[in-house]
Amino acid sequence: MTATMIHMTGFAGLNKKHNAVLVIRDADMVAAALRQALADAPPEERPGLERAAALVESTAAATETQLRARWVRSRLEAVGFTGDIASVTAVKALRQAEPKLSLLAAVQLQKEAVAHPE
């Protein structure tokens, strides 16, 4: 499944800054493309396509919270963070990876990552 994370910053009221990480899923399109490819595939390609289809189906069942937790881990990995995800250092690394992310949003995303270990 392909899930894209979009970080959005907006303003509500005069001084309140809100951040959100949205999950955009296109698993249905990917699954449909794989089913079509599988239907048209020669026998030697079927095992790989069947495995890909199974992976898409299994990841498509992930909740938005689980996807955000995976996103946090990928962003931490991108900046070389290897410590405890529950630490203050992890929040700092997440904000390093995503500089426009507010402290409040980073802490919330961290909590989701801690609550949904891989």
Could you give a short description of this structure?
The protein is α+β, with helices and mostly antiparallel strands and about 120 residues long.
Structure description:
The two termini are 16 Å apart. A two-stranded antiparallel sheet has the order 1-2. 57% of the residues lie in helices and 17% in strands. With 118 residues, it is α+β, with helices and mostly antiparallel strands. The protein is built from five helices and two strands, in the order ββααααα. A hairpin with a 3-residue loop joins β1 (3-12) and β2 (16-25). The chain has one domain (3-115).
> Biggest sheet, open or closed, and with what strands and sense?
2 strands, antiparallel
Structural class: alpha+beta
Question: How big is the Rg?
Answer: 18 Å
Enumerate how many helices there are, as a single number: 5
Mean pLDDT: 82
- The global form is elongated
H/E order of the elements?
EEHHHHH
Low-confidence stretches: 7-16
Q: Please give the order of strands in the largest beta sheet.
A: 1-2
Q: Total strand count, please? A: 2
| Percent helix range | 55-70%
- Kindly report how far apart the N and C termini lie: 16 Å
What is the count of distinct domains? 1
Task: Report the β-strand fraction as a percent range.
Answer: 15-25%
Task: Considering the chains and any ligands shown, give keywords for the structure.
2 strands; two-stranded antiparallel sheet; single chain; alpha+beta; 5 helices; 118 residues; 57% helix
